Every structure is written in C-alpha cells, then in structure tokens.
Amino acid sequence: MPYTKLWSKIPLTTAFTLLITAGSSLLAATAEELVERQSGSSPFSGQFCDYTSFQTSVVGSRLLMFGGNLTINKGTNSKEKRELESGFQFFSLFLNETFQATDNATDYLRREPDPAAEKRIASMRDGGAFSYNGDIFFYGGQQLFNAGDDDIIYKCTPTSQNIVWNSAAISGNVRRTITKGASVDASSENKGFYFGGQDIIAKGADDSQADRVLNGTSSNNLIVLSFSPGKQEFTNITAPVSRAKPLVESNLLFVPAGKEGILVNLGGDDGTGDGAWEDLQVFDIGSSTWFNQRTRGNLTSGNSKNPGTGTCSVIASDGDNHFIYVYGGSNRAPGQSQLAILTIPAFQWFTVSNQNYPSKVNAQCQLAGERQMLILGGRSSNGRGDCGGNSFLEILDISSLEIVSSFPNNNPFTPPPLVRTAANSSNPLDGWTDPELQGLYETQYQTFAERNQESKSDKGTIIGGVVGGVAGVLLLSIVAVFFIMRSHRKKSARDVKEAVAEVNRNSVAQPFLGQPSPGFPSPAFPSGEYQHAYQPGYPPGHIYKDDYIVEAPPNPAPAELPSANPAARPMELPS
Questions:
Q1: Is residue 67 packed enough to be buried (19+ CB in 10 Å), middle (13-18) or exposed (0-12)?
Q2: Is residue 112 within 8 Å of residue 43, measured between CB atoms?
Q3: CB proximity list for 30: less than 8 A, separation 6 or greater
Q4: What is the mean pLDDT of the chain?
Q5: pTM of the predicted protein model
Q6: What is the spatial distance between Cα 498 and Cα 478, in angstroms, rounded to a whole number?
Q7: Rounded CA gap, 128 and 138, in Å?
Q8: Cα(403)–Cα(423) distance, integer angstroms
Q9: What ranges does the record give for the region Disordered, renumbered to this chain (predicted)?
Q10: What's the number of CA atoms in the CB half-sphere (13 Å) around residue 68?
C-alpha cells in the first residue's frame, strides 16, 4: 500500500504523537552527541592499551601531547586484536585543574581536533617539540603523511578557543630528516636542542608513503634552535666522536649551571646495546664544547646492568645541587628497578626498587610544580599481548618517591633521604674527568633574560659613566671659570682699593704733583728753571726739566707706613 494511503488512515492525534516522539528522540540523540563532543568523554575509540613515540610540550598551564602511536583494543577481552588508532593524536591536560590520576583517562584527558584532516598537518612519530612565546615548534621525527620538504617544519599556537597551525622554514645547514633523537626545551635560554638519532629518507609525492627510517645509521650532531620574536635560527654542531658518540633514543637534560647552562646526555643506545650511563656526554652551551664525565654508582637491577632505551627523565634542583630522575626502560622487567636518580655535581647514581612502580617503556615525563613527575603514556614491559594494565598517567612524588594519585601538590621540592649524603658533595666523587669542565660548571648560572638585563645595565653604567664624566668635567670647568672670574673681580676691586689707599697716603705725605702737559706749566709751580739734585756722573749745574724731586715738609708718621719707594701715580685708575 502506498505510504500516502497508509498515512491517511492514521488518526490525526496519533500522527501528531508519532511526530512528537520521533522529534524528541532525534533531538535527544543530537543533544547527547553534542554533549559527548563538548565534554570529550571519549578520548580513545576503544580500550587504552599504550601510547608511545609522541612529544610533549607545556604552554602556560596546558600540557599538550602530539603525534605518536596510540594502540587500542576495541574488543571485550585481551584476546581481541589490538589496533593502531588512525589519524593525528592530539591531547591536552590542564595543569591548573585538580584531578585524580585514575584508570579512567576521561577524568583529566581531553582530545583535541585532528588538524591533519583539513589543514594537511603532518602526522609525527618521535622528533622534538619546543615552546617559545606561546608557539610550539616541531623538529625532526618520522612523518607519516602529508609531510613537508626538508626545509619545512610545523608549529602550532594553542589559544583558549582553538589551535592555529602553520609551517616554519629551516635555516642554515640543517634538515628535518632525523628521528629518534633526544630533545630538550631550554626555555630560560630561548633555545631548543636536539641530539643524535637516526637518518631518514623523506617521503615521496604519494601521501600514503611515510618517511623511511634508515636503520643502522646514527648521528652525533647537535641541532640548536635559537628563538627571538618572529624569528628562529638553526645551527648544526657536530660533536667529536671521542667525547659524544652517536646515540639513539637517549635523554637530553638542561642543567642550570655554568655561564649559559649545560646539557647532559645519558642513556640511549650506541649500536652495541650500551648507552651513556657510566660516562656521560656533557655540552657547555656558552663555549659550545663537549666534555665527558664519569659517574659512580650501580645501576644493575635483575639481569640488566642499566635501564636501556625507552626511558624518560626530568630534573629538579635544590640550590647548587641537581637531581635527574630517569624512569622505566627497555631493560627493566616488572619487579626490577624502574627509577634511577643521578645527583650533580657528585655524579652518583642511585636506584630505587618499589613494587608499586608500574613498568614503562617509551613514556614521556614532565615535571609539574616542584615535586610531581608526570609519567605519560608508554607501554608495559610485560609484553604487547595485553593492554598494559597501566594507567595512561602515573604521578611520582620525587621527594617522597611514592606513586600518588592527587594532582597538584604545591609543596616545595626536598631531596629524598636516599640522595642527601651525595648532595653534600660539591665535586664529583671520582673527580672531574675533564678538569676544564670544573671551571665552567662552577660559574654562577644566570638566565638569558638576567644576562641581557645585566648587559644593558653594564652598558648603561658605561654610558652613564662617560656622560657623567663629561658632565663632571664640564661642571668643574664652569666652577673653575666662575671662581677665576670671581677671583679676578675680587683682585681688581682689591687693586682699586689699594691704589686709592695708596693715593690717599701719598696725598697726606706730599702734595699732588700733576704730570705736566706739553707747552703748559705745572700748576703747582711758576714757570722757569729749577735747580735739581744731581744724579751721579752728571756734571754740576746741569739743568733737568723733566725730573722733579721734591722734599716733603715734615709730617707726623701715618698709622700705616707707606712703602719705601712711593708708588707712581697710575696713568688711569682701574674701574
């Protein structure tokens, strides 16, 4: 029967009821889907198994996780097939929120939109992430699709509303084609560093083809990213093999020591199964020099002499002492030591055995606050036949050395009792392997901003000193001229006074004798010739008309005797 005829036989009230019910169901389904999308209640499309080979970065109070391999189980038991989650993995964890690190990751984890679907952003595996001025730059790593060429890397800008993606150009003798290296974000220096790793061949034009890793190859190059407003520069520093052998999947840490900080590279694999555990690779940023430093302590646990590859690490400082926490590793089985601590400058290793520590390989670690080490993702070393049995997130209190569930803990960091004895040492227990490193290490560290401020202050002091010196000389010159002029004025006035006094004295002692003008007789005497005293050698009777010597009549002696030789009357009194 045609639907129109069937519909015509349904009573009107019944039709309205059906429409309202259907509409309500549709609206309810739409609302439920919208709520699910907004709340992010399903960060995984199935049961979480493990998350490896991803990168983490912190911008403000937001911890972001990018790329990598996410494995899930969509079945109802562990025998179901584990599947690799397709697409670009992108998660957020907000560090300004309070939460409990439970088995249910939806309590604290949010999934961000996949940028690869619309904006052709490369999917990444391994590599390094560096933050600067609100942006996150990605360097290296294996790109799985939509990859750029050798001169392009990607960056994103997280905001409160969305995340903006862009590309950034690489400069200098640097290419992006490296993976499985060690990266560290030295934010206090406005720099990022990437060391070692394996070479890769960039993918072709086919979007389905991923970058190919060249197994058996390794690099001992240190890539330095220097950031400034609106600009990033890349530098390639090749390390001497004698001091920094090539390593894969090592740990690179920034230590606030030395003039501009130092880098410590440890762990990893050098192709023989060993890494940098007993002898560390140390790079002084200020002098761009590599050193070696021998350590003390036993890292053996079970049948393994060291943690192996796949470890993650953080660093905490207490004054001039620094503590590197290294977690997990491919050589550690359940029940073995999952945590190792290196103290600096004693350079001594300690291992911690705790049955409550979950085994982790290829996890990522971040220090939140001063004393909570976030251990994110990773896989269990039990094997890959199950879904791990570990939580997406574990929290290690690096002061109490206990796994905790509450976040955050705002208490300050205090070194655990296990390492306090070594923390009292101001030098390596076995001495400095490279004595030159001692002087560099013992230099008081200042951040880039502090050094820049001090440099401006020094320049200001120099300029101020020069300007002040010139101003001082000018001021002294003005004062000197003032006093000289004043002295001259005082001297002139004094000369006038003395001259007037002298004239007055002479006026009392003898009459004023005016200087005769030519052709006119002296006003004091009648015209004619006058007898004068003779000067020696002149004949008697010689008359001198121009020289007058007059003997003053006797007078009482004045209160102040005039000088022996009467002063000649000045031609013109000074003004």
A1: buried
A2: no
A3: none
A4: 76
A5: 0.74
A6: 29
A7: 6
A8: 23
A9: 512-532, 553-575
A10: 24
